[in-house]
Records
---
Amino acid sequence: MMLRTLTPLSRSAGTGITSRAPKTTFTPSNFVRFNATAADYSQSPKNAFQIKMRNVGISAHIDSGKTTLTERILFYTGRINQIHEVKGKDQVGATMDFMDLEREKGITIQSAATYASWGDHRINIIDTPGHVDFTIEVERALRVLDGAVLVMCGVSGVQSQTITVDRQMRRYSVPRLVFINKLDRAGGDPIKVTEQLKKRLGLNATLINIPMGKESNLHGVIDLIHQKGYLFEGNNGEEITEINIPEDYQAAMKKYRGIMLDNLAMANDEIAEMLMEEQVPTGEQLEAAIRKSTLNHTFTPVLTGSALKNVGVQKLLDAVVKYLPNPMESVNTALNLSMGEKPVQLISDAAAPFVGLAFKLEETKFGQLTYMRAYSGTLTRADSLYNVPEDKKVRVPRLVRMHAQSMEDISEIKAGDICGVFGMDCATGTTFTAGQRINMTSMHVPEPVLSLSISTDKKGDTSTGPLGKALAKFQKEDPTFRVHTDVQSGETIISGMGELHLEIYVERIRREYGVKVNVGQPQVAYKETIQSKANYNYLHKKQTGGSGQYAKVIGYLEPIPFEGDKINNEFVNATTGNNIPPNYIPACQKGFQEISAKGPLLDMPLTGVRMVLEDGQTHPVDSSELAFRTATINAFRENFENCDPVILEPIMKVEIQIPTEFQGNVMGMLTKRKGVIDSTEQGTTDYTTIIAEVPLAQMFGYSTELRSATQGKGEFSMEYRRHDQVSPEIQMKLVENHKKKKAAEAK
Ligand SMILES: Nc1nc2c(ncn2[C@@H]2O[C@H](COP(=O)(O)OP(=O)(O)OP(=O)(O)O)[C@@H](O)[C@H]2O)c(=O)[nH]1
């Protein structure tokens, strides 16, 4: 097999994702989804390899150590022969963080795919970013993975992004293991973190191993299932020694093994019965029960260690193989387009017709690289596939297996596996089949909350030239990154999930495309809506000189409930009779769509507005589509004021971690920024976590303020919660400023 290196690799993905229903909703009724065993599907010898396959995501709050952990996994599984640290002294950087920016900032921006072998099992791993601004990467990974490892910081415990990731895992019904990392740090406390997992995430989280030693003395783990100790020695913890449990750990082992058995009994009837009859389950019986309960989400195994100090990682790999599902145990549904979108279950059988999902695209120097998860059948190089949404056949010229920035050519992939395909043009989320008209449900794509105007010194450089290329590529790559031109000002506006998200793209434009860009002030993604109903009766009439225009529209505007960041406006044609001939109705609808994209108050999108058209009038000569479109827009504008219009702003959930001594000061700062405190919680050390809701518009410059108020020790993260009405005073101010800006632009 040939190994090729692609450096530097710039990544790209596609457009075309719509926010649609996820693959499975997490409800108690679909806990039974894992009742089918691998053996049910593996009668064909072609499927035997799938039992030995795991598709695993590694997710967590920022800085918990996912990349450091993945680096160890690659080392222990023999994929790399040297460990490089994130921001390491060797100036190389971790293998999975291969973008320059990732190495500089020491954070993961994009998910990277790789695979490893552990014993006779193959593990496809996706390292995902922890920062909420890159949440789309986590969504993409979870959509196509069968199991996940949730990495926790043993000192900070459950953090805001842990909760977001947990929610995403539930949305895609992904069974998970927890690895409590950083137990070599002062204040590391796996017991407290496990309690938080129970209390704050509602998981039946249970330690299945506990650390030996703590802080700088951390040197091994005690396996509560097999009642053995394991030491990790050698330069990189690669030499594992099994020992009997030392005397001074006997009491802790008994205590936490007891808790493990009780928690497992709550999830598993067989273990419950054995305990009632005072039988001692064997290690194999416990492992089988843990596997079953992990797959049906009634038990979450928790393992401990330190990636940086090389403790416990191999035990985590054992647990991935033992407790996370193989592709045949994961239920995946698709919609049969030939049967009115009837849901069908895909069978992870290598002998079945092929079905695959393109879940991520990258632009490489060899052209578009499409990451594909095969759900059913076998894909062989040079096969033809059917691109379902575009209704066309495509050939598959080249198949590769990815390993961070290098890859190797392969000749086929089978159901359950993940690979890269070259030479195929498609958007992210495209379903490919052997010819069947079925479509996999797509991923959840959140709406952007922040915008920024960008410009270059050279006129006309934004839509063409290097900047135009960069923007087109990033949009294709990331569905949460949007670009549009403001009609009035002619400015190019980029929108995304937060300051860091946009900052990274601006930096990439500068570095990868050598374009000097100037950026404006970040703008919040406001929305406009109405609160009451108002009738309209509008005549658009222009009959002086030339061809005239005549259109009358009658109806009403009314509010409808809206949710989160979704745009949900409705145009309803309730006309009876022929006062407005049917051929003019689409023009009215178009008028409504036009005005709802740019509301009358701030030129921001409308949401929660229904426009009902009941009646109207035409003129035998002067009526036209243009006249009806204009009439609808004007009817809307004229009556909008009568509907109590309001501006909605994004409200963020902000989680702040600070040394407790600064708590009073930081809470005062939040109140000044119009924040509402939800809760405060004392952490494992002398740190306090404050959770608050704060309008996004109030959060600019917060990181600098927090840093200076906490001697650089405070950290925060935020995520979108909902859109909420601004106060009347702020609304007046926003509208006034907007009018001034427009007047200035008009001059
Ligand atoms: N003391 C200690 N530090 C660790 C451990 N694991 C990781 N770190 C450090 O924590 C920092 C963050 O580690 P990363 O591996 O980049 O964390 P990440 O979760 O991948 O970060 P993002 O990708 O930015 O979300 C780095 O400085 C690591 O060296 C650990 O077990 N113990």
Note: The longest helix spans residues 728-746.
---
Amino acid sequence: MAARTVKLAVIPGDGIGPEVVAEGLKVLSAAAPEHDLAFDTTSYELGARRWHATGETLPDSVEAELRGHEAIFLGAVGDPSVPSGVLERGLLLRLRFAFSHYVNLRPVRLYPGVTTPLADVAPEDIDMLVVREGTEGPYAGMGGVVRKGTPHEIATQDSVNTRFGVERVVRYAFAAAQRRPRRRLTLVHKDNVLSFAGELWQRVVREVGAEYPDVSVDYLHVDAATMFFVSQPQRFDVVVTDNLFGDIITDLGAAVAGGIGLAASGNINPENDFPSMFEPVHGSAPDIAGQGKADPTATILSAAIMLDHLGLEGAARAVERAVAEDLLARAKDGAAERSTAQIGDAIAERVAGQG
Ligand SMILES: NC(=O)c1ccc[n+]([C@@H]2O[C@H](COP(=O)([O-])OP(=O)(O)OC[C@H]3O[C@@H](n4cnc5c(N)ncnc54)[C@H](O)[C@@H]3O)[C@@H](O)[C@H]2O)c1
Ligand SMILES: CC(C)[C@H](C(=O)O)[C@@H](O)C(=O)O
Ligand SMILES: [Mg+2]
């Protein structure tokens, strides 16, 4: 019997979700024996198929079952056959909110051998950790529509920023910055326009920052930040930002660090009051679904973030090392075309071969 059995809920979801999740699980299984681990997985059929069959996005009974797991491993949700937002809000955001995933952790890292569209950058130039707020901002679902269908229709979408919500994510970001060699935190917002929310974020960063005198603090408006992500990625170490800005800049981060197929994330509840959820940054990619073309690396790296969160650092490093080796090998092979399963097999083989 393994020394540690992780009770893991799996939500493959839609589009390429099931394809990439299968490879993530393959790599976890390969890592398990070396690290005296086992995964007790339960797969949940949630997403477009279930919605079409039953009209359900996330039944309360399933949410309650998910709560009883140590972690959730998710592929992606969203399908062109379902109205936009039904699954994204009804499943993904519902889980992030219900399980208080207030830290959406999104590392942006250029691995050696990976091609970036940026000129003259080395891997050490792109190494940041975006700490995206995960439960508030314009995602909160507040607002509405009046005079619908008339020429005077008004749609509002409020951004919710609570002192409690901002402070807890800012504290997490400072603590993360303090553990990193450069000890630098950049707040990204738009306080020249979003003055109420921006001022709250600024004030909280100033106040919490007083407790972290060894962390240097910087501020960028989000528009300028997008420019510097491309022109001077070296500027960034830890970035803390609101839910929507964080969504946008992490797709950009993915693009500068080698593509969306490599970008990993964790939806973290740091107190472990609820299971945290791990998923690639990308979506269900309907344009390539079912063709074995999706890169599962983002999902595999999300599994490594999960292992870290579960306190299984040895296994996490082994998975990361296997990915790093595979990425280097890809560079040497002249990026030979491989299927989703072939990439998963190669990484699983490397991870099984490591101590
Ligand atoms: N966390 C999630 O579940 C999540 C995240 C983003 C988008 N979505 C949903 O996914 C659907 C599609 O959204 P989208 O097209 O804006 O974003 P997307 O990330 O699914 O796709 C954007 C582009 O990136 C490519 N791509 C994505 N993942 C890839 C991978 N692993 N390997 C290779 N190429 C990859 C796609 O083929 C597409 O061309 C929508 O329903 C959206 O709401 C879900
Ligand atoms: C699908 C959508 C709700 C989601 C988000 O905006 O958070 C996605 O884009 C992401 O980045 O995880
Ligand atoms: Mg996104």
Note: The pocket of 3-isopropylmalic acid (ligand 2) is lined by residues 78, 88, 92-93, 247, 281, 283 (CB under 6 Å).
